[in-house]
Amino acid sequence: MRRLVWRAAELVGSTPETATARTLRLRVPGWPGHLAGQHVDVRLTAEDGYSTQRSYSLAGPADGEYVELTVEDVPDGEVSPYLTEIMEAGDQVEIRGPVGGWFVWRAENERPVLLVAGGSGIVPLMAMIRTRRQAGSRAPFRLVYSLRGPDGAYYADELRRPDPGLDVSFLYTRTVPEGASRPAGRIMLADLAEGGWPAGHAPDCFVCGPTGFVEAAADLLLVLGHAPERIRTERFGPTGG
Ligand SMILES: Cc1cc2nc3c(=O)[nH]c(=O)nc-3n(C[C@H](O)[C@H](O)[C@H](O)COP(=O)(O)OP(=O)(O)OC[C@H]3O[C@@H](n4cnc5c(N)ncnc54)[C@H](O)[C@@H]3O)c2cc1C
C-alpha cells in the first residue's frame, strides 16, 4: 500500500456554491491522482506550530496536480470557516491522500447507480457524476439529493443541465419552492422508490451525508429490498482533533 504523505496545496481559485459553502481549487504538486468518492485530509498549521486536520471529499475527477473540495461553513468550527471565508488565492494548506478504497465508483463499471446525498454529502457523489460524464460512461445514474431548501443546492446549475442517463430529484426538508407537490420533510420510502431504481435492477447505491441521514437512507434502501452489499455509505461526522 502506498504511504500517504503531506503535500503543500495552494489555493488557485474558488467559487461560492451557496451562502455558506465554497468550492476551493487547489494546486498540489506531486498529487498522485484519485478515484471518484475518495477524500483527503487537510491540515492547517498556525504560526505557533499548533496544527489540526479534517477530512474533505474530492469534488471532481482526477485532474493532474489540481484538486477541488467543497466545504460547508460549520459555525464556530475550527477548520471550515478558514477554508470557506478566510483562505485567499496564494495561501497554502497541507493535503494528504487520496484516502478510501470502498466508497468509490470506477468509470468502467456499467451497472446502474443510485446516489443518495444529504446536504454536503453531495460532494463525493458529484465527483462520480462528473467522472461518468468525462469518461462518456453509459452507466445509468439516479441522484436523490436531500437538502434544507432550494437555496442550499451545491452545483445547482450543473445538476439542472441535461446530462443524458442522469436523473436528478431534489427533496427539501425545510423550505419547498412554490407549487412543489412534495411537502417539506425528511427522506422517506417514497422518495427512494420514485427517485431511485427498483431493487431488481441491482444498482450500486452510494449514500453520503450527516450520520443520521446516512443511517435513515440506508435503512430505507434495505426496506426497498436492496442488497446490503450493494449499499455503500460515507458518514460526514465530525473529524480531526
Ligand atoms: C470522510 C469525510 C469526508 C468529509 N467531506 C466533507 C466535505 O466534502 N465537505 C464538508 O463541508 N465537510 C466534509 N466533512 C466534514 C469535515 O471533515 C469537518 O467535520 C467539518 O468541516 C467541520 O470541521 P470544523 O473544524 O469546521 O468544525 P469542528 O471544530 O470540528 O467542530 C465544531 C462543532 O461543529 C460540530 N461538527 C463538526 N463537524 C460537523 C459536521 N460534519 N456536521 C455537524 N456538526 C459538526 C462539532 O461537533 C463541534 O460541535 C467530511 C467528513 C468525513 C468524515
Task: Walk me through the structure.
This protein has 241 residues and is an alpha/beta fold. The protein is 19% helix and 32% strand. It is built from five helices and eleven strands. The chain has helices at 80-86, 122-135, 156-160, 189-195, 211-223; strands spanning 6-16, 21-27, 39-45, 51-57, 66-72, 92-99, 113-118, 141-147, 166-172, 204-209, 231-235. It has a six-stranded antiparallel beta sheet with strand order 4-3-6-1-2-5. A five-stranded parallel beta sheet has the order 9-8-7-10-11, with helices on both faces. Strand 8, helix 3 and strand 9 form a beta-alpha-beta unit. The radius of gyration is 18 Å and the shape is globular. The two termini are 25 Å apart. The relative contact order is 0.16. It binds flavin-adenine dinucleotide. The site of flavin-adenine dinucleotide has 23 residues, from strand 4 and strand 5.
